[in-house]
Design a protein that fits this description.
Elements: H1 25-50, H2 56-68, H3 77-102, H4 123-130, H5 142-167, H6 173-185, H7 193-222, E1 228-231, E2 238-243, H8 247-257, E3 262-267, H9 277-280, E4 285-288, H10 296-301, E5 306-309, E6 325-328, E7 337-339, H11 345-353, E8 364-367, H12 371-376, H13 378-387, E9 392-398, H14 407-415, E10 420-425, E11 439-440, E12 443-444, E13 446-450, H15 455-468, E14 478-483, H16 487-498, E15 505-507, H17 516-526, E16 529-530, H18 534-542
Parallel strand pairs: 2-3, 2-5, 3-4, 5-6, 6-7, 9-10, 9-14, 10-13, 14-15, 15-16
Antiparallel strand pairs: 1-8, 11-12
Pfam family, one: Prismane
Function: Catalyzes the reduction of hydroxylamine to form NH(3) and H(2)O.
Keywords: 4Fe-4S, Cytoplasm, Iron, Iron-sulfur, Metal-binding, Oxidoreductase
Length: 544
């Protein structure tokens, strides 16, 4: 196997024997086969679209299958094999769609991925086929290969957000159309490095629309988040822990647990759910448990109830909690009970069987500071900047992870001067969201904007501030310090680059899939750089 799509890539270059995440070589090969097959789907779907033909099943399969291959989502070979089978069916459907719209077969050359290759019947044979289509085989030029991988990972990240929006009944044909175009472009031998750089920027732009669509879906369904204190203690009683990003799944579980004496807790990226009026109205949504995803093995053993993952990031489950662990949606782990659909009675039964919590009072942390809430304070914020009470804003956001270098983000938040405000999003916030950073004239110094997809909200805040101060985002007293781990962080980074945001710092390490030449390009054009020492970076950003 060879996989280098996330920050944990072994030795900083790639996982070759088994994934650091726990991905087995057979799953890696099946996921490579899925990606190869999806390029074939994209070839035909893109051509069909050019002739005005669209098929919803093909579009939805594209995003679901891409999401399946995101880091820490699907570890089950049987489920990946099913996705590969459906991918081949969708390729044939997309080809038929094109041929109908075209009034006959395609006259040009058909690339191998889009040809009529058959999927072998056995899983072992599928794995063998997948091994021939790894990420190193995309392109013979290492720089083009690098940019194609950036584009693929951007599409994977965007597919996850598009899937959440789709589940909430929001679809945008433009987003599906772009993903087909992007994957089809990887089969076009005429395209060169700068074509793929352009597609990466288009991917970033399209993802702003995609995150905007998801934001709209959340707000229409659950109303705009409002600043909300969330308990990190426990209430006496039976308990279910929900991990992931999917708010609709949480809502359904809240409906089904109402009046059953079972409290619901959020884990990691579900924390911002507490800020939505349409979700916090459920009195049995009682708090947030644990820290970021990489600590689940230790923390879940102590959770005395049922646990369900609705999106990444799942890790190898421990025996202490495997029998009360469930997956839903795209997430799968072999041997862990998967809930297919919307009936959570098995999860509730497992919670009722488990011991439950004793009362454990603890402090609150604040969430729900999206753009509606922050811009509701716009006058106060602008006045504080003009008076010098707020000197600078720092967006410190992105993923958390297991590597030791991530203490940087804790120290950074701790050491920032008291006249600065932090906007944070995604699970990287768990490095500092329990610190008491105080407030500036009633404006909290730590504002939790939301999940990683709420980068959209952070962008809206930055654009509104730029509008208020009549300057560009790069001229604002604003610095961006990102932490990355998986492909959603890749697409958020592409979105920020597509807005021409410069001078960002990225850590804890740079992606293994970025070659030195591609990195030079990013440095020259965007002055993006790796994190260094907290003191030096902060000095630079504060202009001291
Ligand atoms: Fe964190 Fe994991 Fe949000 Fe990522 S919980 S690294 O999926 O998308 O951030
Ligand atoms: Fe390794 Fe990350 Fe790929 Fe898992 S997803 S195999 S940790 S590079």
């Amino acid at each position: 196997m060879f996989c280098f799509q996330c920050e944990q890539a072994a030795g900083g270059t790639g996982c070759t024997k088994i994934g650091v995440c726990g991905k087995q070589p057979d799953v890696a090969a099946l996921q490579d086969l899925i990606v190869f097959g999806l390029k074939g789907v994209a070839f035909w779907a893109h051509k069909a679209r050019e002739k005005g033909a669209i098929d919803r099943d093909i579009d939805v399969h594209m995003i679901e299958a891409l999401f399946t291959t995101v880091t820490n989502v699907d570890f089950d070979p049987a489920s990946c094999a099913k996705v590969a089978q459906k991918t081949v069916q969708m390729r044939d459907k997309a080809r038929a769609l094109f041929e109908k719209a075209n009034g006959g077969p395609f006259k040009g050359d058909v690339p191998a991925a889009a040809g009529d290759w058959k999927l072998p019947a056995g899983q072992a044979e599928m794995v063998a086929l997948g091994r021939k289509h790894g990420v190193k085989a995309f392109h013979s030029d290492p720089d083009v290969n690098s940019v194609q991988n950036i584009l693929l990972y951007g599409c994977k990240g965007m597919a996850a957000y598009a899937d959440h929006a789709h589940i909430l009944g929001k679809d945008d044909p433009k987003i599906y159309g772009f993903i087909h175009k992007a994957l089809a472009s990887m089969l076009d031998a005429k395209l060169g490095l700068m074509d793929f750089v352009g597609l990466c920027m288009e991917c970033g732009k399209t993802n702003i629309d995609c995150m905007g669509l998801l934001n709209k879906a959340h707000i229409e369904k659950y109303q705009a988040p409002t600043p909300t204190p969330v308990s990190i203690g426990a209430k006496a009683g039976k308990a279910i822990l929900v991990s992931g990003h999917d708010l609709k799944m949480l809502e359904e579980l809240l409906k089904q647990t109402e009046g059953k004496g079972v409290n619901v807790y959020t884990h990691v990226e579900m924390l911002p759910a507490h800020g939505y009026p349409g979700l916090k109205k459920y009195k049995h949504l009682v708090g947030n448990f644990g820290s970021a995803w990489q600590n689940q093995h230790k923390e879940f053993a102590d959770f005395p109830g049922a646990i369900i993952f609705n999106t990444n990031c799942i890790q190898r489950p421990g025996d202490q909690y495997k029998d009360r662990l469930f997956t839903w949606g795209r997430v799968q782990w072999p041997g862990v009970k998967h809930i297919d659909g919307w009936d959570f009675s098995e999860v509730i039964a497992a919670a009722q069987k488990a011991e439950g919590f004793k009362e454990m009072p603890a402090k609150n942390i604040l969430t729900g500071c999206g753009h509606d809430a922050v811009l509701g304070l716009a006058d106060k914020v602008i006045a504080a900047v003009k008076s010098g009470a707020i000197k600078r804003f720092f967006v410190i956001g992105g993923c958390d992870g297991a590597k030791p270098g991530r203490n940087y983000y804790t120290q950074f938040a701790e050491k920032l001067p008291k006249d600065t405000v932090i906007l944070t999003l995604a699970c990287g916030k768990y490095r500092f969201n329990k610190l008491d950073l105080g407030d500036i004239g009633g404006i909290p110094r730590l504002l939790d904007v939301g999940q990683c997809n709420d980068a959209y909200s952070a962008v809206q805040i930055a654009l509104a501030l730029a509008g208020a101060f009549n300057c560009g985002v790069n001229d604002l007293p604003l610095s961006i310090v990102l932490s990355w781990y998986e492909q959603k962080a890749v697409v958020v980074l592409l979105s920020l680059l597509s807005l021409d945001i410069k001078n960002m710092k990225l850590g804890p390490t740079l992606p293994a899939f970025v070659t030195p030449n591609v990195l030079n390009f990013l440095v020259e054009n965007f002055n993006i750089g790796p994190i260094g020492s907290v003191e030096e970076d902060m000095k630079q950003m504060l202009g001291a």
